[in-house]
Write a structure and sequence with these properties.
Layout lengths: L7 E6 L2 E6 L10 H15 L6 E6 L14 H4 L3 H20 L4 E5 L2 E3 L1 H7 L3 E4 L4 E3 L2 H4 L5 H11 L1 H10 L3 E2 H6 L5 E2 L5 H13 L3 H14 L8 H12 L2 H12 L9
Parallel strand pairs: 2-3, 3-4, 4-6, 5-7, 6-9
Antiparallel strand pairs: 1-2, 7-8
Helix pairs in contact: 1-3, 6-7, 10-11
Length: about 260
């Protein structure tokens, strides 16, 4: 995959699409070129049938993603025209986090703060190391935090915990983040990648159409009731029952073997 920056890396390995934020000198802060590359990578993975699960990770082991790279704002976000371009690019990149219909896993080591936590919240499942820290320090900076990020946090941990995180602007350690439901698993640093690979392999071996339906159904559940597209979900259910994978699943069950799902 041709990208305009070496600060974003992408590879496909065994059905897993790996997205690496490769800016460890700045705790993986995301530059404009990285935003552009993120959108390119996720769009490519969405359209690649060989990719069944996508994993987000940060390079260096000290941070997952630390939000936008403020150091370039003077040169790339100084005027109204630049700001509009920057926000269009970053918004398009983040839309792909929401549009991806394949399972999205966040592999977190170290700081997962502010915009980095917003990125992690876009994932379906979150793994973290014991030394990871989580928080949204907007109240300590005096900046406004958008509705989308606050709503995503409140849906995940509930309104009461979300208020605590936002009002106090304090950092949560991995143990507390696990307890309140902010993350799914805590894994030692030296076992993290292997555990994520194992989990992603488990998911990628399942029927892709069924997994896609389940992700879509949970997504519709999180919408306001009047905005839910239940007709779309019925179509996805029917697609599962009409698929070759469903036939393969039945045959494999009768023959007491592992099914070989093809996503069709």
């Amino acid at each position: 995959m041709e990208l305009k920056t070496d600060k974003m890396l992408a590879e496909v390995d065994g059905g897993i699409g790996w997205v690496t934020y490769n800016n460890p000198a700045r705790r993986n802060a995301v530059s404009l070129e990285m935003w552009e590359a993120q959108g390119t990578i996720l769009e490519s993975f969405q359209n690649d049938d060989a990719v069944r699960v996508v994993v987000l990770r940060g390079a260096g082991g000290k941070a997952f993603v630390s939000g936008a790279d403020i150091s370039e704002f003077e040169s790339k976000r100084a005027t109204a025209e630049q700001r509009e371009h920057y926000e269009n690019v970053s918004a398009a990149a983040n839309r792909w986090l929401g549009r991806l219909d394949k399972p999205l896993i966040a592999m977190i080591q170290g700081y997962c703060i502010g915009g980095g936590l917003a990125t992690a919240l876009a994932a379906d499942v979150r793994f973290a190391t014991p030394g990871s820290q989580f928080g949204i320090p907007a109240a300590k900076l005096g900046l406004g935090y958008g509705y989308g990020g606050i709503a995503a946090l409140a849906r995940l941990v509930g309104p009461s915990v979300a208020r605590d995180i936002l009002f106090s602007a304090r950092f949560l350690d991995a143990e507390e983040a696990l307890r309140v439901g902010l993350i799914n698993f805590v894994v030692d640093d030296d076992a993290l990648e292997a555990r994520v690979r194992e989990y992603a392999g488990l998911v990628s071996a399942n029927a892709p159409l069924t997994v896609r339906l389940c992700k879509a159904a949970v997504g519709e559940f999180e919408r306001d009731p009047g905005e839910r597209d239940l007709a779309k979900l019925r179509e996805l259910v029917n697609a599962c029952f009409d698929s070759e994978d469903y036939k393969e699943g039945r045959r494999a069950f009768m023959e007491k073997r592992r099914p070989n799902f093809r996503g069709a």
